[in-house]
Amino acid sequence: MSSLTKKVLDAYPAEAGLPPTLLAEGVDKLYECAGVCLACADSAAGESDSEKIAHSVKCMRANNDTADLCTVTARVLARQTGYDSPTTKNLVEATRSALIASADACQEFQETDYFALAARACRETEEMLADLLRQMEEGSSADYAKEPPSATTPAGRARTTKGGGGSRAGSKSTKGSASSKASASTKGSASTKASAKTSKSPKRSQDDLRAMRVGELRELAKDQGVRGASGLRKDELLEALLT
Description:
By secondary structure, the protein is mostly helical. The protein has helices at about 5-10, 20-45, 50-55, 55-80, 85-105, 115-140, 170, 175-200, 205-210, 215-225, 235-240.
């Protein structure tokens, strides 16, 4: 069943650099791990054995730090507008380090259920972030939306002007100007079609395409008119470009 996070990311009005499914899984996993770490730290603090609490203080601290970093990283990943590659990657790396430290600390108390569960959650989340980071590095920052969507014109969509308020000047155009525009359009239509045919990117060999980065393949796919190019992986892009 699709999560609400994926549905929201699917509804993003501009093109994103990573598939919504991958981003949604990452965001949901980070929030889940944050909850597990907080619950683990709270359970440890609620133990009646003061000596056991004292021994697990370091682990509780690690869990709380990891929960904070997971939450921040999830929030940053969910924002695609104005994507900042260095900041995002550094944050992901810092969170991975915290997850490893927390998992190792919890492993020392694995005989206790809540510590064992927290260690498992941290290791699974760290593996997920490692995969996500690889996907980010394969792509290009150019694939992410650079302009924030406005209230009237979402980023990634062409601006269109329809009749309405503020269009009185256009409505006062003379019949002569309308006919001259139609004439100019008719004369230029043939040359426009011809130039459109020649503007397409030339075909490239299979070896050339395989040597290209994912970001370059996505740009080429967009030029070739491949729909949803920004959400395709490398093998999918190759298949679309070679057919």
